[in-house]
Amino acid sequence: MKNVKYENAPDDISDALKVAEPIDDFLPSPEYFAEALAKEKISLNIDAKTVARFRTYARKNGLKYQALMNQVLSSYADKRL
After folding, report:
1. Terminus-to-terminus CA distance in the chain, angstroms?
2. Measured CA distances, 79 to 1, 33, 40, 72, 76 (Å)
3. What is the pTM of this model?
4. Per the CB 3.0–4.6 Å rule, which of 12, 23, 53, 63 could disulfide with 58?
């Protein structure tokens, strides 16, 4: 994608750009994502009813059920353990 320079911006945009201040980078670091993506395969026995609930919810919301289960477990562990 080539860089595009916009000219003749509307006055309200031009005025806003004159007084705009940069904001701090609020995105997590690449290291955070690398750590978050590291996975370990395990065998785990989970009630069939519980797995079915996750699969149903994930399917309805366009998610992968194992990733959803991981997210829920991680969130719980971060807050409670």
Report:
1. 46
2. 42, 19, 21, 11, 5
3. 0.56
4. 63
